[in-house]
């Protein structure tokens, strides 16, 4: 192990003063999570919080999946009375809301919370207390809306909650209010994590990790974080205006009083279309990591992939109006947004070309993670092609709000996000748990998912072309949609069965799976340079990065940096572009205040659904807990 030592005038014990045999235990004691319930709730370890995020995200995925099962059972035959129209409206709203706000966006950030600090070679994420706060806010917001649904006050206006349907005139009661506040919960959480990821990538990279040595996974999460920061405020603003219309009789969307219902659609889709890429970009992160490892070579066209990620981020903000082609846009505007909707296929195509070229020139090993990536290629490209069709105004006008659109976005989102995510779970499960998932069950899972998905969603293209509208709770037999819907329901059953296989695999492998070594796939990125699962401090010594594929380039001796404190939490801050050591900075200790703050914020958010005075009454309490959280400590300045 070659070692670069950082010198400082500090009198505290440094890792250079401790014998290598004692160092892991000393660091684990410093960075570890205290035992007991209070310790668990106070933790600021990014791996523990990341695991909680991932498990919670999958919990909401299964809830959303159960809602989808109910939808498919209802539509399996015409004139079905299994579910009434009111409950059906709530179920399809909960399905869309859960998948988009409680699973699609958070799960990508959850993986980033766990993996990005490991991949950039630091000991914790930036702003770890904010990270804990963001998780609790996300958890409470998700539980709130599902509890509301269980009490028959779940939202029922669709996951986009269009006005005037969601306004006070057509949606009395509290259902739309719960939706609007749930959006506020999840966006606060998402924005907090995005800030953490950006600062972690810019300032906490291991020395030597220059911009052109950053793993493609990290680049994708970095670009994704910027998308979240620029896109999310639009829907937060929109949902706030909606709830003000409903609770304080403002008239942002009330046309009779000078408001504009179309303003809601602009605000929502200015967020909503980038959200598709916020869900998709983590998928590209997983694919880049998996393809390189199982092709046994670096990803072809590193620079092209990075530039494509950035181009995708920029272009994603120029597409929102194609969701509004049927609202009577001027022809010139529709032309520009048609062009931009087609242009975004270019960077996505470049990435797919680079991944295929990597496999073509490599020596692919067809394990379960790579199978899911191959499934991603097939499904996502099919969804992209139907997306090109929908970018055309005449076609979009013809199939608008039909099941053709439902088929398209499920091909894009399940193909572009869920298949890579499942591949990623198979890939990083050994790092999370120290055990391998069972390969045989993984292959069963893949083939059931691939076949079941296509049987479920491909017929929807045809039923949409035959005119079947979205969001109808039943249909008459004379329409001729019954056979297609029955096939879709059978396919959905197969798709659900594949996830039961996955769940079984996770449960049995967590306890009795094959023990994984530190690097069971012989991968090249830094998370595999530490133990499986990693210790509380991630690395005994901070790595020194000499190559983009460090573990392949430095197989015998991993260069490291020494000179960090042992008995206090300390991270190394580096310069933004060259990743030169800049200063040593304290990392916050565990505290219960993020949880208390999240509870207070939750009480205010939920209380404001019933009375706007909850904000006024809750503000002093929120101020108190935030002051307590940030109360200055007598910490010695760092150098």
Automatic annotation (TrEMBL):
Keywords, alphabetical: Cell membrane, Copper, Electron transport, Heme, Iron, Membrane, Metal-binding, Oxidoreductase, Plasmid, Respiratory chain, Translocase, Transmembrane, Transmembrane helix, Transport
InterPro entries: Cyt_c_oxase-like_su1_dom, Cyt_c_oxase-like_su1_sf, Cyt_C_Oxase_1, Cyt_c_Oxase_su1_BS, Cyt_c_oxidase_su1_bac
Cited SUPFAM superfamilies: Cytochrome c oxidase subunit I-like
Entry GO CC: plasma membrane
Membrane topology, from the record: Multi-pass membrane protein
Gene3D superfamilies registered for this protein in UniProt: Cytochrome c oxidase-like, subunit I domain
EC number: 7.1.1.9
Any single GO BP term: oxidative phosphorylation
Any matching Pfam family: COX1
Single GO MF descriptor: cytochrome-c oxidase activity
Entry-linked CDD domains: Ubiquinol_Oxidase_I (cd01662)
Subcellular location: Cell membrane
Membrane-traversing stretches: 53-75, 95-120, 132-153, 178-204, 216-244, 276-295, 302-322, 334-358, 370-391, 403-429, 441-463, 483-504, 616-632
Function (record text): Cytochrome c oxidase is the component of the respiratory chain that catalyzes the reduction of oxygen to water. Subunits 1-3 form the functional core of the enzyme complex. CO I is the catalytic subunit of the enzyme. Electrons originating in cytochrome c are transferred via the copper A center of subunit 2 and heme A of subunit 1 to the bimetallic center formed by heme A3 and copper B.
Family: Belongs to the heme-copper respiratory oxidase family.
PANTHER family cross-referenced by the UniProt entry: CYTOCHROME BO(3) UBIQUINOL OXIDASE SUBUNIT 1, CYTOCHROME C OXIDASE SUBUNIT 1
Protein name: Cytochrome c oxidase subunit 1
Source organism: Rhizobium fredii
